[in-house]
Amino acid sequence: MAEQIDLLLTGGTVVTMDHAGTILSDGAVAVHDGAIVAVGPSAALAERYHPNEVIDCHGCAIIPGLINGHAHVPMSLLRGMVADQQLDVWLFGYMFPVESQFVDAEFVYVGTLLSCAEMLRGGTTTFVDMYYFEEEVARAAEEAGMRAICGQTVMRLPTPDATSFDEGLDRSRRFIEQWHGHPRIIPTVAPHAPYTCTDRIYREAAALCAEYGVPLVTHLSETAREVEESISEREVTPIRYAKRVGAFDGACIAAHCVHATDDDMRLLREAGVGAVPCPTSNLKLASGVAPYKRMIDSGVKVGLGTDGPASNDDQDMFTEIQLAALLPKGISGDPTAVPARDAFALATCWGAKAVHLDHLVGSIEVGKRADLVVVQLARLHSAPRYTYSPDAIYSHLVYSARAADVRDVLVDGRVLVRNQDLVSLDERDILHRSQQIAARIDTFLARRERNLLAKILAIGGVQQDEIFEIQVKARLDAEAAAVVARLINAPGVQITKASERTQYDTYFLFANGERIRIREDHRSDPGARPQPKYTITLIAPGERGELPSAIVLSRARYTAAADHTVRFYREYFQPDQIAEREKRRRRWRILYKEHDFAINFDNFGRDSAPELYLEIKSRTWSRRDAEHRAEIIGELLAIAGISEDALLKQEYIDL
Ligand SMILES: CSC[C@H]1O[C@@H](n2cnc3c(O)ncnc32)[C@H](O)[C@@H]1O
Ligand SMILES: [Zn+2]
């Protein structure tokens, strides 16, 4: 008598991705209680089973559900927000500031629903995520019916859901406890990357993963710069560093590994770490092309991911598979480098190993969960079909199939997409809610992009010094030393501090008159700090008035420590013009008539042809006080013997 089962998919080309590479041309898959109970010829299974439901798969391939090994699914709401930037500008200039303003539980929930809808329609059934408010990712993935490893992100910087790492770790523990044991959702913790984490963060995250037997998720060796900085700061590559701080003690999923060295690959293989490059994102952020072939050949468990939709910009695993097949060919000149079958394995059986879920998914085999995808084969862009070679189906799936060819999707035997319609999610409602959130971000960015101060504030650490700066400048001649000596030795002048420094200034000039100065300040006087000091200052034109004697009163300067490179700031602010100045400066801080002033003796020239200037400056919060100080500066000029016609009105950058 025929056995009663839940479901039979029949009449399709079954691409099992099992160890033997079995392909059944008129094949069927029997599903019961969420698991695959038989795989075989359609006729045989039709005889053996009495299914409650039959899905006719003629003209289609039945493939294992695709595995997206690295994603930030809520970031679908940031898709298309900024493009064509390097990783640091993209991340520190746009993602982090916008996330800190807008990412909350609702953002994460709606963004995840949007991604789940997109992924399901494109044949992805499992994804590995790392983001904030990860309990909302888990909730949305659960509602969508998908399988997911959900990593609660931790780092040393404050995040949208935690003000410190300790708070983030507590949150991760609560999240893991809440979801641990769920049949499809694996909760875990995800230290963001070596450059945003400390040894302690990795060690404590690894200990938490060990306690619950869940994989640790992280980013490693995504860009060449990351590797260079890791070597110069820690003397090891990010991958060796991750091993040193315990990230590989249990199961680990390492996103990207684009710049993994041969030694790194050995470490990854020995520790059984899953390496998950993200071809589109790695190209779009110009991070590079992962060494797919060398990683595969050296026995590393390799998977594939989309990365977040803000750097991809879609979550179509068919594109990633195609790129993983094409890129190594283009780079090596060897068309056999990563054959279609291997590329397809990266998103199925090998991908499952890379995310440590190969006991459940990744191939169509008896005993595995019924995560299955039905792909139409006879579309305009993929017709006709050849069958003389067993490999032709891989070529078809890798080079011509697209996400839009996916017809039906099952996870755990439950149909989630039927005839290209989402069963578990309300597509129209998700699109509406997504656009509402994006509209708020759009307004915020439109304002911010027009406002340099807001842009500086967005990257953090700014002191809002809205002050009056009173300053006067004079060009000095051969008598310069005598002029300065007269000034600093004058009766009533008390020197409080003296220093010598070389300053390298880069000015960004904007059409509206605003300026940004990035200063590298090296002190050379005895006892000075050995490290240069980097500052970024916004000099807004603000209210600018001139007092007697060419004394300039400017308002609104905002200064912060400059944590990024000049290149970062250039790409982030996109100035209309750039100018550079180098000067040697002797500076005396003096007290005169109970007010403090800075006397700067500046040399822009070479020793053989010095270009000498004297600057007298002071700062205050009050306009009235500024005017009073301007009068005192007039007295100091008289003491120095500087006549009115030696005074300059311009800033150095304008001279
Ligand atoms: C770990 S998710 C949280 C955090 O990571 C940022 N992010 C997204 N994609 C990348 C990437 O490719 N490299 C580094 N960081 C990335 C995202 O904006 C979130 O803030
Ligand atoms: Zn990522």
TrEMBL record:
Alphabetical list of InterPro entries matching this protein: Amidohydro-rel, CYTH-like_dom_sf, CYTH_domain, Deaminase_MtaD/DadD, Metal-dep_hydrolase_composite, Metal_Hydrolase, MQNX/HUTI_composite_N, MTA/SAH_deaminase
Bound cofactor: record note: Binds 1 zinc ion per subunit.
Domain Amidohydrolase-related: from-to ranges: 62-415
Domain CYTH: 469-622
Record's keyword terms, sorted: Hydrolase, Metal-binding, Zinc
Domain Aminodeoxyfutalosine deaminase/Imidazolonepropionase-like composite stretches: 27-49
Needed co-factor(s): Zn(2+)
Binding site for substrate: 99, 192, 222, 307
Name of the protein described by the UniProt record: 5-methylthioadenosine/S-adenosylhomocysteine deaminase
Gene that this sequence comes from: mtaD
